């Protein structure tokens, strides 16, 4: 069961810190255990009330002279008194002797022993104020040390943030200072950085992933500790202008104190600045890319190259193909971010918005990878033929036509090329026939099964090869492999399908089959196939 645990910021000492003070002369009488000395203490208070619990806070050492008790204190009364103190979270009971009673009352000793409440003797010449002052000094000393630790830690984190790695160095410094693993995830729960293998391992635990995702989906700032089957993790949201943008997770075997929270909040602030700078930078780059597209579509190809090179982005040098995704509202923010991230990993790829809609320009060598990626996410797109960059307006017209065809297709994952959209003749009649589609699935199934088993690209190779009229070199250029690799793949395809790859009728049969069901990634012939 996943639960939320409150955290505390108060400094504490232990009961052992008080008892070990020689000048006070305190003696433990009852309720002794191995853990008694480690009992946390936050305050010392005295009271002679029969029921002082309304005025007590947890982790308090209660002092009394016993004036509320008579010498005839019964066992039941003593147990009731001790039980109330334990329910109030009292850490220990100190009983002063030789004031109202010569010794600690036996029923009270028995009750404390029975219920495990530490009970100590306060000698006559030790005033309660001396115990209170000692505890106060010790708590203040701890507070001073923690404040000094906090200042040194924040300075160290600031220095780390100025290094080349910036935010990740600050996270690692925080983890070192806390002696705990620390991770940063985005609002969707995707891990951005982890302080060492322990952080990556623990943050991948399903219950932590679920907790991070839940907080991210709510979009509400939070600073909570979650617990699951004895394990604890502290979660701190990272906020910005755009709302919750990330979550910092910290190992929480013990609750974070005020100093540790201050260090965590400093890193959260640095992370918020990082996310905001990244958002503004991405927005600026998107506007520049859109401006480059406008220049290209206006025929200013040379100027577009100059502007693109100015922000270290290169356009295709020779031929290009164009993906069209419809208007900018056709993709969700999550899908757009995923497409943007994938496109940024490819060279000479330009993704931007234009009055016409969302456009991606790519060299032919990335066409197959981008098509497969869009299919995997169910993104509808239209794809143009190959064109020089100066003919981008023609490519856009073709891609828009292919996109309209993709949108009316009934399959779930559609990326249609202009050739397929424009070649709808006899093939379009076959598309309405389920038996024809099933026959196409059976025909191409050996390729899909081989691709799934061996991680090769036989289906994609066949499609590109047929589009290049069976020429190995142009197909190899588009696929980004050697022409001998294409030749060996085509030979293997012929063997798997039992077809003569040089026979025009067999080629036509395969081309029609691909146009009916497209590139298929599921090795089972009954799977729902898609068009490309």
Structure, explained:
By secondary structure, the chain is α+β, with helices and mostly antiparallel strands. It has four domains: 8-138, Udp-n-acetylmuramoylalanyl-d-glutamate--2,6- Diaminopimelate Ligase, Chain: A, domain 1 (3-Layer(aba) Sandwich); 154-277, GAF domain (Beta-Lactamase); 314-422, Alpha-Beta Plaits (2-Layer Sandwich), CATH 3.30.70; 425-532, Arc Repressor Mutant, subunit A (Orthogonal Bundle), CATH 1.10.10.2840. It has 19 helices and 19 strands. It has a six-stranded antiparallel β-sheet, sandwiched between helices. Strand 12 and strand 13 form a beta hairpin. The chain is elongated, with a radius of gyration of 36 Å. The two termini are 46 Å apart. The model is unreliable at 1-9 and 519-532 (pLDDT under 50).
- List the strand order in the largest sheet: 1-11-12-13-9-10
The coarse overall form would be elongated
CATH superfamily of the largest domain: HprK N-terminal domain-like
Number of helices: 19
Number of domains: 4
Beta-strand fraction estimate: 15-25%
Oligomer: single chain
Euclidean distance between termini CA atoms: 46 Å
Q: Which architecture of the largest domain would the CATH scheme give at its second level?
A: 3-Layer(aba) Sandwich
Radius of gyration: 36 Å
- Which spans of ≥5 residues are poorly predicted at pLDDT below 50? 1-9, 519-532
Question: By helix and strand content, what is the structural category?
Answer: alpha+beta
């Amino acid at each position: 069961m996943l639960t939320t645990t409150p955290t505390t910021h108060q400094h504490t000492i232990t009961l052992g810190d008080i008892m070990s003070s020689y000048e006070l002369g305190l003696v433990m009488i009852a309720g002794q255990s191995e853990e008694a000395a480690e009992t946390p203490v936050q305050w010392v208070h005295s009271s002679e009330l029969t029921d002082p619990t309304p005025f007590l806070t947890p982790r308090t050492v209660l002092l009394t002279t016993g004036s509320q008790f008579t010498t005839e204190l019964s066992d039941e009364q003593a147990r009731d008194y001790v039980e109330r103190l334990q329910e109030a979270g009292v850490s220990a009971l100190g009983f002063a002797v030789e004031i109202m009673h010569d010794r600690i009352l036996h029923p009270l000793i028995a009750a404390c022993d029975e219920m495990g409440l530490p009970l100590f003797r306060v000698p006559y010449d030790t005033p309660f104020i001396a115990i209170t002052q000692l505890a106060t000094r010790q708590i203040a000393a701890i507070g001073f040390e923690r404040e000094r630790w906090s200042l040194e830690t924040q300075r160290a984190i600031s220095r780390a943030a100025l290094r080349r790695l910036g935010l990740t160095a600050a996270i690692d410094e925080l983890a070192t200072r806390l002696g705990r693993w620390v991770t940063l995830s985005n609002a969707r729960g995707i891990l951005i950085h982890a302080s060492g293998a322990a952080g990556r391992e623990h943050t991948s635990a399903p219950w932590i992933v679920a907790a991070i995702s839940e907080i991210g989906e709510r979009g509400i700032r939070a600073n909570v500790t979650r617990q699951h089957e004895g394990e604890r993790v502290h979660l701190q949201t990272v906020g910005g202008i755009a709302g919750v943008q990330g979550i910092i997770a910290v190992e929480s075997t013990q609750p974070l104190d005020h100093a540790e929270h201050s260090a965590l909040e400093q890193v959260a602030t640095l992370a918020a600045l990082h996310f905001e700078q990244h958002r503004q930078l991405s927005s600026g780059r998107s506007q520049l890319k859109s401006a480059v597209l406008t220049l290209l579509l206006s025929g200013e190809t040379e100027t577009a190259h100059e502007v693109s090179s100015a922000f270290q982005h290169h356009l295709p040098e020779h031929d290009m193909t164009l993906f069209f995704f419809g208007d900018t509202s056709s993709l969700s923010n999550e899908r757009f971010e995923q497409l943007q991230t994938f496109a940024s990993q490819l060279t000479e790829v330009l993704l931007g918005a234009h009055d016409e809609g969302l456009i991606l320009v790519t060299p032919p060598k990335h066409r197959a990878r981008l098509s497969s990626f869009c299919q995997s996410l169910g993104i509808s797109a239209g794809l143009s033929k190959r064109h020089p960059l100066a003919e981008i307006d023609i490519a856009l017209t073709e891609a828009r036509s292919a996109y309209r065809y993709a949108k009316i297709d009934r399959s779930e994952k559609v990326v249609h090329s202009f050739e397929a959209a424009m070649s709808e003749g006899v093939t379009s009649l076959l598309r309405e026939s389920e038996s024809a589609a099933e026959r196409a699935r059976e025909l191409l199934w050996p390729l899909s099964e081989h691709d799934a088993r061996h991680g090769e690209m036989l289906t994609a190779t066949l499609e590109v090869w047929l589009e290049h009229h069976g020429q190995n070199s142009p197909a190899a250029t588009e696929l980004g492999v050697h022409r001998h690799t294409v030749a060996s793949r085509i030979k293997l395809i012929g063997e798997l399908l039992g077809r003569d790859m040089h026979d025009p009728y067999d080629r036509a049969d395969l081309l029609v089959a691909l146009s009916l069901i497209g590139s298929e990634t599921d090795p089972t012939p009954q799977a729902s196939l898609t068009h490309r």
